[in-house]
Write a structure and sequence with these properties.
Number of helices: 2
Distance between the termini: 31 Å
CATH class: Mainly Beta
CATH architecture: 7 Propeller
Oligomer: single chain
Structural class: mainly beta
Length: about 425
């Protein structure tokens, strides 16, 4: 018999709260799970058409139900004995249902993780001894026309003293909350950056350390939209498009964008940062000065379609990295969806052609494995592992997730997806 001991519920700074409901869509990584009254940022023409259709459907369904949105902050805290918090499967993977669409995931240890997702939600899971605490934090929405809609988060970073989440569509927001002495957050969140350009669609954010954070999104003004902070996310500056006079972000190609699939479009080792694009062109951008100036290199991944190219990247060290994606519309396709580099991203070689998993949205090296051990997740693909740097794969679970992240010590793999989260020890993965 499982002992469950939920307690300690609290609500702070609540003005209005909407009834909980399920998201009716398993959204593709370029879509928006929120009903904007105006046209979504022009990801691609086909994307806009689908997203606008979703918008009308959601608005229609919500017009007949009570629509009371959180305007400040709503915090739900549940405390459970660890034996009752998770459901464990035969592999040893721990599962928990968690309403929302979760694509942003940052573990700090094997016992603690932060998440951000749809409907303005942030979440904090912390395990101490036999007690696991889950906090669900609703943030303020934004007013679009006469409608207040929640921000949809797909990027999250944790610094030494704060948590920052980035929403995707116009108006894009980066919101910041200080971490308190007891490990919680100071609420409500503070708006640190916003962009109202109708074309903006932000895809990923990464903390480089030494108070430097980089965020990137789809092209505006002719190049990928890159912003930087040098004060732990309190203030932000746009990195200009490069021209003959000044350094910056190289010009984007026709149809080139990025996919907000798992906050996986950025990677860094030391002062070197990489950025992955997809769509009409799938290329790798590299900066050796923490995002101020950039070079760009071609990749052999599928590209040229609205949903083709790289969806996620990671680097084991300054020379060895991996990119993965494929074709979201043909997820079983095992060609031109994975590649590795041995020269810091300048050249890329295809791997595991016609074998192993197809499309995936998140790929990660296991820390401490010298670039040999990898985890790959996607929906509906499940979880696949590699023991040889991505050359071959073993399928270990059909449980589908959007995002995967290892704890810093490499001993725990955290997972996040549509309506659920998960966790599994490296021992149970055969490592």
């Amino acid at each position: 018999m499982k002992l469950i001991c939920f307690s300690n519920f609290r609500v702070t700074s609540v003005h209005k709260v909407h009834p909980t409901r399920k998201d009716p869509f398993d959204h593709p990584p370029w879509s928006i799970a929120q009903p904007h009254a105006k046209r979504f940022g022009p990801k691609l023409p086909q994307v806009n058409a689908i997203a606008n259709a979703m918008s009308k459907r959601l608005l229609k369904s919500r017009s007949i139900s009570t629509m009371l949105w959180v305007t400040m902050a709503f915090v739900f805290t549940g405390t459970s004995c660890s034996s009752g918090f998770w459901q464990t499967d035969e592999l040893g993977m721990q599962h928990r249902q968690l309403e929302g669409s979760w694509r942003a995931l940052t573990p700090t240890t094997g016992a603690e993780a932060w998440l951000a997702g749809s409907d303005g939600l942030w979440a904090h899971i912390q395990e101490k001894g036999n007690t696991t605490t889950l906090e669900i934090m609703h943030g303020a929405g934004v007013t679009v026309g006469d409608t207040v809609v929640p921000l949809h988060y797909r990027s999250l970073v944790v610094t030494g003293d704060a948590v920052l989440g980035m929403s995707i569509a116009s108006p894009a927001h980066i919101q910041r909350a200080n971490i308190t002495e007891d490990g919680g957050l100071e609420l409500p969140r503070v708006l640190a950056w916003t962009e109202g350009d109708s074309a903006v669609f932000m895809d990923a954010m990464l903390h480089l350390g030494q108070q430097c954070i980089i965020a990137m999104g789809d092209p505006t003004d002719g190049c990928l939209h890159v912003v930087r902070s040098e004060d732990d996310g309190r203030t932000w500056t746009r990195v200009a498009c490069a021209d003959s006079i000044r350094p910056g972000v190289p010009a984007a190609r026709s149809g080139e964008a990025a996919f907000a699939a798992s906050n996986g479009n950025l990677a860094a080792v030391g002062d070197t940062v990489w950025m992955l694009s997809g769509g009409g062109a799938s290329r790798v951008y590299r900066s050796t000065d923490r995002g101020i100036s950039w070079q760009v290199f071609d990749t052999p991944l599928q590209q040229g379609g609205t949903m083709t190219g790289g969806f996620s990247m990671d680097f084991a060290d300054a020379q060895h990295g991996i990119i993965w994606g494929g074709n979201w519309a043909a997820k079983d396709d095992q060609t031109q969806r994975g590649a590795v580099t041995q020269d810091g991203g300048q050249t890329w070689a295809l791997i595991s052609e016609n074998a192993g998993p197809g499309y995936a949205s998140s790929v990660r090296y296991r820390p401490g494995s010298q670039g040999r051990q990898l985890a790959l997740v996607g929906s509906p693909g499940g979880l696949d592992l590699s023991d040889d740097g991505g050359q071959s794969w073993r399928h270990v679970s059909d449980s589908a997730f959007y995002a995967a992240r290892f704890s810093p010590d490499g001993q725990t793999l955290w997972l996040a997806g549509n309506g659920k989260i998960g966790r599994i020890s490296s021992d149970n993965l055969g490592w």
